From TrEMBL:
<feature type="domain" description="Pyrroline-5-carboxylate reductase dimerisation">
    <location>
        <begin position="177"/>
        <end position="281"/>
    </location>
</feature>
<dbReference type="InterPro" id="IPR028939">
    <property type="entry name" value="P5C_Rdtase_cat_N"/>
</dbReference>
<feature type="domain" description="Pyrroline-5-carboxylate reductase catalytic N-terminal">
    <location>
        <begin position="15"/>
        <end position="113"/>
    </location>
</feature>
<dbReference type="Pfam" id="PF14748">
    <property type="entry name" value="P5CR_dimer"/>
</dbReference>
<comment type="similarity">
    <text>Belongs to the pyrroline-5-carboxylate reductase family.</text>
</comment>
<keyword id="KW-0521">NADP</keyword>
<keyword id="KW-0963">Cytoplasm</keyword>
<keyword id="KW-0641">Proline biosynthesis</keyword>
<keyword id="KW-0028">Amino-acid biosynthesis</keyword>
<keyword id="KW-0560">Oxidoreductase</keyword>
<dbReference type="GO" id="GO:0004735">
    <property type="term" value="F:pyrroline-5-carboxylate reductase activity"/>
</dbReference>
<dbReference type="InterPro" id="IPR029036">
    <property type="entry name" value="P5CR_dimer"/>
</dbReference>
<protein>
    <recommendedName>
        <fullName>Pyrroline-5-carboxylate reductase</fullName>
        <ecNumber>1.5.1.2</ecNumber>
    </recommendedName>
</protein>
<dbReference type="Pfam" id="PF03807">
    <property type="entry name" value="F420_oxidored"/>
</dbReference>
<comment type="function">
    <text>Catalyzes the reduction of 1-pyrroline-5-carboxylate (PCA) to L-proline.</text>
</comment>
<dbReference type="InterPro" id="IPR000304">
    <property type="entry name" value="Pyrroline-COOH_reductase"/>
</dbReference>
<comment type="pathway">
    <text>Amino-acid biosynthesis; L-proline biosynthesis; L-proline from L-glutamate 5-semialdehyde: step 1/1.</text>
</comment>
Length: 286
């Protein structure tokens, strides 16, 4: 039996059940934060993917279901933290399949969207510590934003262990589960909003006569650069905006046009629609 997950990330044994692009991004952050690859195990479906990951991360143990149908159950034995990285439709089945092999103190962490704590707790052994998370794609570049919510059986030290899984790849916030849909609407879907803005800026440049490739370069680098400015400690987007908005200048005229079109309300409606859809998906998957 493992001890309750109170150690440092470098001493905990962490398992990734499914290692697609999102789970791999979390894995990279965990390794960069000091966890030895020897303390991490991953499972994948195909043997080729297993070989790829072993070559990329020396010391990492990777089991392929193609070679061993019981790879997931074998991987979780003695684990401190088990990260569920399969698609939402497969989460309940995964929980049921690994349940008999889990230590009672192993913290199960789900990165699947829309699958509620109640749904997963019903599929896991009674009393199993469970944390639900809402990560986003900038984890892949070490600038992620992750919301996590604790299940009914999670201790403070176990919640810290779950937080540490993501901390190497981004900012982690703890919220009640009923706020995860809002987190999803802001940070989960949020990268797409920024990409959409860059698309619109590039298209506007073309309308103004710029070469398409040049306009895309300008839009892409401007959005990326502004994002970096926002990473400064205590950066306030309203203050940053005002700093580049000279009275009676060109930027002020553009912002006035945005306000007249109700852009902030449009964004709010989009976020509300995203949160509503997240709630619908949770009901469908329950």
């Amino acid at each position: 039996m493992t001890a309750e997950a109170t150690g440092t990330p470098s001493t905990r044994r962490t398992v990734f059940l499914g290692c697609g692009s999102m789970s791999e991004a979390i894995l990279v952050g965990l390794l960069s934060a000091g966890t030895p690859a020897e303390n991490v195990t991953a499972t994948v479906r195909r043997s080729e993917r297993a070989e790829e990951l072993r070559g990329r991360y020396p010391g990492l143990t990777v089991l392929a279901e193609q070679d061993d149908a019981g790879a997931n159950a074998a991987a979780v034995q003695g684990a401190d933290v088990a990260v569920l990285g399969v698609k939402p439709m497969g989460i309940a089945d995964m929980c049921r399949s690994i349940g008999p092999a889990l230590d009672p103190t192993t913290v199960v962490v789900s990165v699947a969207a829309a699958v509620t704590i109640a749904t997963m707790e019903a599929a896991l052994p009674t009393g199993q510590p469970l944390v639900r998370s809402m990560p986003n794609t900038p984890l892949k570049v070490g600038r992620g934003a992750v919301g996590i919510s604790a299940g009914s059986q999670v201790t403070d030290s176990q919640l810290d262990a779950a937080r540490a899984v993501f901390a190497g790849a981004g900012t982690v916030v703890v919220v009640p589960e009923d706020q995860l849909d809002a987190v999803s609407a802001v940070s989960g879907s949020g990268p797409a909003y920024a990409f959409y803005l860059a698309e619109a800026m590039a298209a506007a440049g073309v309308e103004l006569g710029l070469d398409p490739e040049l306009s895309m370069t300008l839009a892409r680098e401007t959005v990326a650069g502004a994002g970096i400015m926002l990473t400064a400690q205590d950066a306030d987007p309203a203050v940053l905006r005002r700093n580049v908005t000279s009275p009676n200048g060109t930027t002020e005229r553009a912002i006035a046009a945005f306000d007249a079109a109700g852009l902030s309300q449009i964004i709010a409606r989009g976020a509300a629609a995203a949160a509503e859809r997240a709630a619908e998906l949770s009901r469908e998957l329950a």
